[in-house]
Structure formats: structure tokens, C-alpha cells
Amino acid sequence: MFTLGWMFGIWLPEGIFWGHTLGSYIGDMGTWIGLLVSLIGVALVLVGWKRIHKNYWIKETGEGKLVTDGIYKYIRHPQYTGFFLITLGIMFEWATIPLIVLYILLLVLYYRLARREEKDMIDEFGSEYVEYKNKTKMFIPYLV
Length: 144
Hints:
Number of helices: 6
């Protein structure tokens, strides 16, 4: 980044590789919007983790059950959606080209990871998971 900044810093405006890029467009409101979006993401991660930890990873018996209630009633991957929202919230404050590229990479990699995990869930729970998968959206309730 230091080399790129040195090489291109003379010609590129602040915000392309560094700085608060959206500040001139949405002002301080971007900070508050980003914070809200990130906090919603953190909530999804925590709620999803708590539900999985309580029901899927049952330490006493060594077995778990398919979790289809709580937040999992609406989306199959609330923790990944939470990660997407946390990083999207950051971009409201600091949307640079490297961060945008990394965000797209994050979306692609987590989508592929979710697909791989769903294959594992089908192996583990069979038709019960397939039925759950058919009626529950992957990342965004009622959309995707």
C-alpha cells in the first residue's frame, strides 16, 4: 500500500486507496449508517452462534440436532450474513478500491463455503436438511 500510495498518490484523489471515501457524498451520516449495519451484523453472528452452540453442538451427548428455529427459521447462514453486514458497514465509512475487491472476494468465498457446508449437512441429516433448505433462504430472508 505504501508503494502504491507513493506511485499513484500524486494523481489519485484521497479515498481511492486510503481515506474516508464516502464522506464527501454522505457526510457523517455514513459513519452512523455503517455503525448500525455493522451492529446488526454482529447481532446476527452472536444469535446464530448461540443457537448453534446450544442445539447443534451438544457436549454432554456428543450429538446435535438440525437447528431450524430462531434466526435459522428465516435464513440458513445468519453468521455469514452477519459477516457480510459487518464488512458492508465498514465500507460505508471507508470504501476504497482494495476494500471493495476484498469484499467481493469475501462474498464469493463465503458463498462457496456455505455451499460446501450444505453438502455436509445433507450427508449428516439427509432429507430433513433438504426439506429445510427448500423452505429457508440462504442469506437474506425472503430474497436469497
